[in-house]
Structure formats: structure tokens, C-alpha cells
Amino acid sequence: MSKILVLNGPNLNLLGTRQPEVYGSTTLAMVEANCIAHGEKLGLSVTCHQSNHEGALVDAIHEARTTHAGIVLNAGAYTHTSIALMDAIASAELPVVEVHLSNIHAREAFRHRSYIAPVALGQIAGFGAQGYLMALDALKVHLSESGAE
Ligand code: DQA
To answer: pLDDT digit string (tens) for 15-57?
Structure first.
């Protein structure tokens, strides 16, 4: 069974209580449990990790390179700043689906730029916690079509 890493970046540990009008009321624990359950339905083994630290996220991507078949990544604010994360994804040579709970393109101008998007398979933004499950669906189709599983 293909392993998928669901990786969340800074401040996403506060999901559920953090600006619920923007990010919804689903907690990170619920998001992760839903991803694991949805993965089981798709025949994917989902593992989850969250860090508030850029270097720890880079490390997690490097580790996934040899252990996982793909990554669902919500890099939080590092999306808009981190060349290090962009380089880590490019080096990992793994399919990455970028997820945002909010529609970053309908928000402040500084959120419109993503350093993840150019190295990602695609981006899902604006569908709240459902976006993570959509990302798993997209990865499943990609892995099947590319003959990776
Ligand atoms: C976010 C959008 C980012 O702009 C923001 O910094 C976050 C969360 C989202 O999921 O909508 O932390 O990635």
C-alpha cells in the first residue's frame, strides 16, 4: 500500500480555535483522523506530521523521499516565503499536492504568491478541511495513472 505524508506547517496546530471564520472549526486532530480514514478507503497508508519550524518541515520532506509515495502539504505562511521548502520538494522528486483551507487567491496580495505551486502537482485552496481529502483523491489518481502503485 502506498504511503502518503500529510504535512502541516506553522500555526496549523491551532486549527479549530485559530480564526475559525477563516479556517473553520475542524481541529488538526480531526483533519488527520479524516485523512487516515479516507486514505484507508483509497488503499493509501496515511501518516501525519505538523511542525511550526521551517527546517523541521524540510527534514520531513527529505525523510519522505525514501519512505513515502507522495505528500499532501499545507505549508501555512511558509507557502509565501520559503525557497527552502520549494527546493526540498524539487529535490524529493515526490508528487506533492498543495492544500490551503482558505482561498489564498481571494485574500491579501501577499498570500497570492506560492513558492510551493511551481514544484507541486497542483493546488487545492478554499474548500476547508475537505481540501485534504480532495488532495488524497488527486494523489491516488496520479499514482495509479503514473504506474507508481
Ligand atoms: C493557509 C493560508 C496561509 O496564507 C496562511 O498563512 C496559513 C493557512 C490555509 O490553509 O488557508 O497559515 O495555508
So the answer is: 999 899 999 899 999 999 999 999 999 999 999 999 999 999 9
pTM for the model stands at 0.97
Backbone angles phi, psi at 129, to 5 degrees: -65, -25
The rounded Å distance from CA 149 to ligand 1 centre is 31
What is the SS3 assignment for 120?
coil
Domain of 36, in residue numbers: 2-146
Q: How far is the CA of 19 from the centre of ligand 1 (A)?
A: 11
Count the domains in the chain. Answer: 1
CATH number at residue 100: 3.40.50.9100
- Name the E strands within 32-146: 44-50, 70-74, 96-100, 122-125
Which residues sit with their C-beta closer than 6 Å to ligand 1? Answer: 11, 74, 76-77, 79, 100-102, 104, 111
